[in-house]
Amino acid sequence: MRKRNRKRDDQAEVNMTPMLDIVFILLIFFIVTATFLSEEGIDMRPPPDCTGPDCVEGPPPIVVQVDDDNQIFVNGDRTDVERVLAAINRHRAEQPDSAVLLEVHDESSHGIVVRIWDDMGANGVPVSIQRTDGDGGEP
Questions:
Q1: Is the pLDDT of residue 99 over 90?
Q2: What angle do CA 39, 40, 45 make, to 5 degrees?
Q3: In the chain, N or C: fewer CB atoms in 10 Å?
Q4: The pTM is what?
């Protein structure tokens, strides 16, 4: 018997075109279906000064200070972060229309400030933030 020697000129090739089509279709699908989120931040701008004749002076604000050692003071009285809302509610019981001014030191913990801010927002207490530097004044 004679063996037949076949030359294999045809090499097996993988056709890449259908795979590239699928990759581009998946890419378009994920781009179209992706949701774009807009992050919301805390507005650090103070309210504008009222200089007109129709400006009404309200009660003095309740000052909440957070120093560089993360100690919290409500109108000068030291308190804990869990008791800030209770202290503010006591002051607001005497003057219901008073707002809260949150004076934050540059080196204070961000988590404490956001927790106080969230507590005030969840309870409907108007609050504004003022950033202070090391000597107690504005930067």
A1: no
A2: 140
A3: N
A4: 0.56
